[in-house]
Fold this sequence. Notes:
Distance between the termini: 19 Å
Strand content: under 5%
Radius of gyration: 18 Å
Largest sheet: none
Structural class: mainly alpha
Number of strands: 0
Number of domains: 1
Amino acid sequence: MWPEVIAILSASGWAADSVLVRLGARRSNILAAAFLSYAVSASCLWLYLLLFSSLDLLWSRATVYFLLGGCLQPLIARILFYIGLTRLGASRAGPLRGVEPLFSAAIAVVFLGERPGFLVYSGTVLIVASVWLISWRRSGEAKWRFLDMQFPLGAALVSFAEPA
Length: 164
């Protein structure tokens, strides 16, 4: 039961983050929101690491690369996603940010030579169909451009390998 609770809390946190950023962006700017959000996340992660894990592994030569990747990738992904939130709204940007498995499957097939089964291809088709449905505009909706969809999709591409 514990993993399910953690998953539900994580999903609720991501949803609350999207809504709160959308509301906060009305009175601030996206870069301030992304840097502040990143700083809080990084502080919480470092506090957890200091309290509950061994820091012996930090003295490796690879630490510099992990630090650079860990600093740049989440920040760039947040900036792109937050721009998408302000332009598209949370109801469109959130699901578009969730297409990371599409990029993972495509990269695994093209670059790693993997041959996934029927279920992976079926899931990929469903992801593409969901992007198509999200991009469908009805009359009377808020004005947004097709280019605005590229921001949350770019955030998904930048962070497709990031553990959620």
